[in-house]
Design a protein that fits this description.
The chain has seven helices and eleven strands. It is of the alpha/beta class. A hairpin with a 2-residue loop joins strand 10 and strand 11.
Length: about 260
């Protein structure tokens, strides 16, 4: 009789656990592991303020980055568009909660209140991404250029050219390997420091700078570390059509994923 009573108690306990939505195997206070919970989207601050030449493609850049973030669920794009935005957002307080900053075709001296503090913020473990004229930004600031890994020197006319992939197993360029063709404005750089070159020219493009087809080794996209931070740069993005190209959007998506460590 006692055995039957104990069995009834066990059955009742199991039924109560099921009614409460818990498994009988779950211990007191057990919680889903962090790996089972979807990660919140990263916060990407996109800077499109310019203090020099302003590209017509900036509107397309903003639209593309908004769409890449919403379609992937990887990040939410916030925008820093004016000199006042720069003064308030690119500060210790304004960067609170931001995972990475993206300089989308910026130019000139942007007016960051404390540029060294911003560069140090990246080095603390944050992400930085730049497209095209991000390398035509802060020519007078060695700390920024060293963080970026290169400085724009000049460019020729807009032409289509063959681009070679330097790291075919890197997700940011694997879909482009071993080579692809695209029309854009092609930068020449002063290279600064060590970096992993993702895209490059092995033959000089026919854009009026140097002999077309001549063997060269010209970097176009790279990634590197700055302290504990991650830095990505691509020279592509002068034309609005490039920002609308699915190949370029994939290039950026995977670069952002790497920069925000997701």
């Amino acid at each position: 009789m006692a055995s039957a009573t104990r069995s009834a108690v066990v059955v009742l306990a199991i039924l109560l656990l099921v009614a409460c939505g818990e498994s009988p195997a779950a211990g007191p206070g057990s919680q889903p592991t962090s790996g089972q919970l979807p990660a919140a989207p990263a916060r990407l601050l996109v800077v499109t303020h310019t203090a020099g030449f302003r590209h017509d493609s900036i509107a397309a850049a903003e639209q593309a980055l908004t769409r890449i973030g919403s379609d992937s669920g990887l990040f939410a794009a916030e925008f820093c568009r004016t000199a006042e935005d720069v003064r308030t957002r690119l500060t210790a307080a304004g960067l609170g909660g931001i995972d990475a900053v993206f300089f989308a075709n910026t130019t000139g001296n942007l007016g960051v209140p404390d540029l060294q503090a911003f560069v140090d913020w990246i080095g603390s473990g944050k992400g930085f991404l730049g497209t095209h004229s991000a390398s035509d930004t802060y020519h007078d600031a060695p700390a920024y250029l060293e963080m970026l890994g290169g400085e724009f020197l000049t460019h020729g006319s807009i032409v289509e050219a063959e681009i070679r992939v330097g790291e075919s197993d890197n997700p940011a360029v694997a879909h482009l390997a071993p080579a692809f063709r695209m029309a854009d404005e092609w930068y020449r750089f002063r290279s600064i420091g060590a970096k992993t070159v993702l895209l490059k020219f092995e033959r000089n493009p026919p854009d009026g700078l140097g002999a077309a087809g001549e063997a060269v080794d010209l970097p176009l996209a790279w990634q590197k570390h700055h302290g504990n931070g991650r830095v990505f740069y691509t020279a592509l993005g002068h034309r609005s059509e490039v920002w609308e190209d699915p190949r370029f959007r994939k290039h950026l998506l995977e670069a952002i994923r790497w920069a925000v460590r997701r």
